[in-house]
Amino acid sequence: MTLVLIVITAVVAGWSLVAGRLEGRHVRAPLVLVLAGVVTGVFTHSQIAGALNSEIALRVVEVILAVLLFVDATELPGGRLFGRDPGSAARALLVALPLSLVLTVLLGTWLLPGLPLVVLLLIACIIVPTDFAPAELLVRDRRIPEKVRSVLNVESGYNDGIVSPLFLFAVILAGSKSQARTPLEALATAVPFAVKALVVGALLGLLVAWLMNLADRACWMTGQSRRTLVLIAPLLTYTTTVAVDGNGFVAAFVCGIAFRYVRQAPVRRHGAQAPAASDFQLIEDTNSMMTMVMWFFFGNAVVLALGEGIDWSVLLLCVAALTVLRILPIALAFLGSRFSWRERLMVGALGPRGTTSIVFGLLAFNALPLGSYADTALDAMTLAVLGSVLLHGGGSMALARLLAPSPPSRAADSAGPPPVQSRSRAGRAS
Question: If exposure means fewest CB atoms within 10 Å of the residue's CB, which of 61, 164, 197, 409 is most exposed?
Answer without folding.
Answer: 409
